[in-house]
Amino acid sequence: MGGRILSFLLGLLLVAVGWALVDPDGIVGTRLPALALGALEGHRPFIGWGALVLGIIALFSAVLPRDGGSGGKKRRTPPIVDFDAATETAADVDVAPEPEAPAAIAAEPTLETPPPQPPPREEPSDTDVFNAQRDDLRTLVRNESWTEAAALARRLPASAATDEEHMIAARDLADFARSQGDTDDAAEAYETALSFARQLQAAAPGDVERMATVADLLTGVGDMAQDEGRLDSALDAFDEALALRRQVVAERDDARTQRALSLTLERLADAREDRGHRVRALELYRESLSIAGDLAASDPQAYGEDLSVTRRRLAELEARLAV
Question: What is the pTM of this model?
Answer without folding.
Answer: 0.61
